[in-house]
Amino acid sequence: MAYIDYYKILGIDKNATEADIKKAYRKLARKYHPDLNPNDKEAERKFKEINEANEVLSNAENRKKYDQYGENWQHAEEFEKANQQRQYQKSNTQEGFGGFSGGGDFSDFFENMFGGRTSGRTRTTTFKGQDYNAELRLDLKEVYTTHKRTLTINGKNIRLTIPAGVENGQVIKISGHGADGINGGPKGDLYITFFIDNHSNFKLDKSNLYTTVDLDLYKAILGGEYVIDTFDGKVKLKIPPGTQNGTKVKLKGKGFPVYKKEGLFGDLYITYQIIIPTDLTDKEKELFAALSKLRTP
Predict the structure, then answer these.
(1) pTM of the model as a whole
(2) d(CA 175, CA 165)
(3) Pick from 24, 138, 147, 240: most CB atoms within 10 A?
(4) Which domains does the chain have, with CATH numbers?
């Protein structure tokens, strides 16, 4: 019978820690578990191999024996007897290890090396349920304020609160709203990815908003007022006389809410764009010409 490389089966190296072994075992056992692969003979075979590898490597005493005698398993018993006589201690084969319910059918290599003996204790390994993934598309205006939304996932309605300021591409985890666990394990989780559509006149960068305001030439020259719509209502801007094209102003705290920081907002940055009048009448041209003469030194 051939030597079985339990490390290779679990996809780990010989320096793997206890945590590494546990992680690898759980990942593979979940993948090939009979409950998730009904009537799949190959998955059943793989599951038994994975279970057997875990029976050996997850127990310190058995792993020690396997590492010491694995490739020389034919002489393991002789080595063990000699070791008993020298150290007056029990054989490692009598220490046993915890079983896995439903495993069974160990290989000839395992039976010969470990004698098929276990401590008689069985434990049912539980597995967390499958995680669900969902997508939710919202408009930028909708995530300006915290609000509630009902989602239907696998036929179940889930009421959730969407915090203000959630970002495009952000993923939020809703614990315990995934599939049921295996062998009484905990439920999986629900991961929601948000996609934010922006149909506004504002560009969002983190929590700051940016926009451009068109000013007519006369208001830029003479000054005046301009009313702008924001997510928080209308804001009246005072335009100083002689405002230049490209002038930027900042409205502190008039930007977008900061995620999970209630009452904290970014800023709103406004760039003025001067609109030059076109299709002038003869009278308008005459007035501009007169004005230009007044301005010429």
Answers:
(1) 0.58
(2) 21
(3) 24
(4) 6-123 (1.10.287.110), 132-197 (2.60.260.20), 203-295 (2.60.260.20)
